[in-house]
Each structure stands twice: as structure tokens, then as C-alpha cells.
Amino acid sequence: MKIMLSSNAAWNLANFRKPIIEALVAAGFDVIAVAPADGQEARLEAMGARFRPIRMRGAGTSPVEDSRLLLDYIRLLREERPAMFLGFTAKPNIYGSLAARMTGIPMVATISGLGSAFLRGGLLGGLLLRLYRLALGGAKAIMFQNPADRELFIDRGIARPDQARLVAGSGIDLDRFVPAPIDQHEHFRFLLIARLLLDKGIAEFVAAARIVRARYPHARFQLLGGTAADNPSAVPQADLERWAAESIVEQLGVSDDVRPYIAAADCIVLPSYREGLPRSLLEGAAMARPLIASAVPGCRDVVDDGVNGLLCEVRSVTSLAVAMERMLAMTVAERLAMGTAGRHKVEAEFDQILVANAYLAEIAR
Fold first, then answer.
1. For 55-80, what is the mean pLDDT?
2. Has residue 235 got a pLDDT over 80?
3. What is the DSSP string of 52-112?
4. In whole angstroms, what is the distance from residue 81 CA to residue 102 CA?
5. Which CATH number fits the domain 2-171+351-364, given the four candidates 3.40.50.2300, 3.30.2320.30, 3.40.190.150, 3.40.50.2000?
6. What is the pTM of this model?
7. What percent of the chain has pLDDT over 70?
8. Is there a contact between 48 and 21 (Cβ–Cβ < 8 Å)?
9. What dotted CATH number matches 188-349?
10. What gap in Å lies between CA 160 and CA 157, rounded to an integer?
């Protein structure tokens, strides 16, 4: 039996859908991975999947390109005739699901985040809303990563209660992300791991860093993540250059392995405006680091305030700075206790085995 999975990047499938792919292969399925080729195809094939490329610009809004994408999905589905289509990220969820509906193939969509266009509304947000309703109306199931997104889709008439499921994100490999000892170093390091988007709270992180550094000169602030120039929420290049010149925040670039950076950090920070289920916080918690995040859907599903981290007000530089200063004022034992609590939470709620089993159960349903 064939199962087709699709995302906006082969990298996304290789990094975030590995537990699902490996579980499907182990169960005897012929797994077809569909995404734009980006150099990660060999990793997918090493997992046992067959890779089929598709032309797609994740952040593009061209009607011509999106119409072509729909036709490409229809062609692939007719050629492969999978028993089910699993969509991840916005365009596969919309155009892949539409194609599956048009070709009579059952589909399951995963909503891992709503995106800035959907949340801001306007003409583009309204168009996305209508496309989601059309594409997902025939879905066998829609997997949500937090209850707030689930309720929002039900309230807006995109999902029916009988379709909507909750799943523990993309799952964490607890054998790969393990508690790391705290290095004894002079500087306390706050680390933010995210694409350099304003919606991730990058500007608030930098502004709060200025405030905290004035009172705690030993504090250090780091950014790990790539730019996303084609995203409307991208941090302007001029801002990145100005921050680098100020030396307030250290820009670490990008990495395929975040573990050394988490191990070298004392606290993981994500002042995002909204999330599905933030992987950087889950990975930080799995490695027993205390967390700071904004009290928004997704983040507050990972951070239990005062237990494994601290929550701050969204878009508030002052609230974020206060949370950072509270973290700095804690004893080592208090921060270690937060890190331990975070590890226990990930073990109980976000193990990748739980996620893989949820998809296998949905396919068998």
C-alpha cells in the first residue's frame, strides 16, 4: 500500500517527519515523499522513502504558479494512486488536498502553524480561509498541534469537530536530544532558535537584550536561524546589519544540528506571536534547559509557567526583559529543576513514538 507525504521542502520532511516516515516504512508501506528538491533527497531515501520532486515556492502567491502546482499534484496522484495523501505545511495542505479530493484519494492534513497571512486577515488571509475550507472539507482527518488552532478552524468553519485531532507536534527523538550538563562559563547565554522573522519576536528579543545587558553585563544573547527573504515577515537586512554592528546579539547563522548550541546555552527563548508547537522549545526542554516564551498558543502548550520555564506577554519588550532578569536572578539549582521538569514533560507528552503511532492509527481507522 502506498502513502504519499508532501511538504514545502525536502528538508522539512527529512527533519520533522522522520518518525512518521520510518514508522510507515517499518509497517510495510511504500512511502512516497513529495517536495521541492533541495539537497535533502538522499536523507529521505535513506529512511526508505521514494522521492518525487515537485515545483513549489513556499511563500509565493502567484496564481499561475499555484495553478501549475495543483496540476502537478493531480498528475503525481494519478500516477502513484496512493491509499492516502498526508499534507504538511500550507501549500501541500491546500493544493495537495484539493488534488487528492479531485482524484478521490483520502487525505489527512496537518496544521503545524497558521502563518502570518492567515492570522493578519486582509485579502490574502480571506483567500487562504476560502481555500482551506474548499481543500479540507473532504479530509479524513485534520491534525492540529495545539487546542487553540483546532478551535479556531472549527469556529471559522474550516474543520468539523469529527475531523479535528490533536497530535504532539512532529515529535522529539529522546535518544538524540538528551540532557546536557551545564557548562561552567563566565557568561549566561540566552539562545533564540528560529527563522529570522518578525513574527518570531526577533525584534523584541534584541530590544530586551539591550535592557538586560545594561543591568547584567555578563549576559549574552544569541540568534540561530536563517533568513527568509521571500517571507513578508522577514527581518529587514538593514536591521540585521545594525544589530551585528551593535554587538548586542550574536548571530550564529544556520546549522543542521542545533544540539551543540543548546548544550552551550543556559536558557532557550522564543517570544513568538503564535506557534503550532515550537520545536526549538521542545528540543531545549528535551536537553534540560529552562525556557522563556510568550504566552500564546503553541508556546504555552510547552512552557508551564514557573515549572519548566517562564511565560511573558506577547509583543512586550518589557515583559520579556523582566522574564530574562528573573531567570538570571534564579539559583543554579532552581534553573536545573526547571530543566529537569522540561525533560520529564517532553518524555511524557512529546515523544516521537506517540506522534508516529497517532498517524498509523489514523491511516488504519
1. 90
2. yes
3. EE----TT---HHHHHHHHHHHHHHHHHH--SEEEEESHHIIIIIHHHHHHTT--EEEEE-
4. 12
5. 3.40.50.2000
6. 0.91
7. 96
8. yes
9. 3.40.50.2000
10. 7
The 3-state DSSP class for residue 280 equals helix
Burial (CB count <10 Å: 0-12, 13-18, 19+), residue 246: exposed
Q: What 3-state class would DSSP assign to 279?
A: helix
Cβ 97 vs Cβ 5: under 8 Å: no
DSSP lists the bridge partners of residue 107 as: 85
Q: Are 170 and 281 in contact (CB under 8 A)?
A: no
Q: What is the mean pLDDT of residues 3-23?
A: 95
- At residue 149 the predicted structure's pLDDT band, cuts being 50, 70 and 90, is very high
Does residue 116 surpass a pLDDT of 70? no
The answer to whether 286 and 266 have CB atoms below 8 angstroms apart is no
Question: What's the half-sphere exposure (Cβ side, CA atoms, 13 Å) at 139?
Answer: 32
**pLDDT score, position 214:** 94
Average pLDDT value over all residues in the chain:
93
The edge-to-edge listing of strands for the beta sheet with 250-251 is 250-251, 219-224, 188-193, 267-270, 291-294, 309-312
Cell numbers 508501506 correspond to: 29
| 258 vs 332: CA distance, rounded Å | 23
- The ranges of the chain annotated as CATH 3.40.50.2000 are 2-171+351-364, 188-349
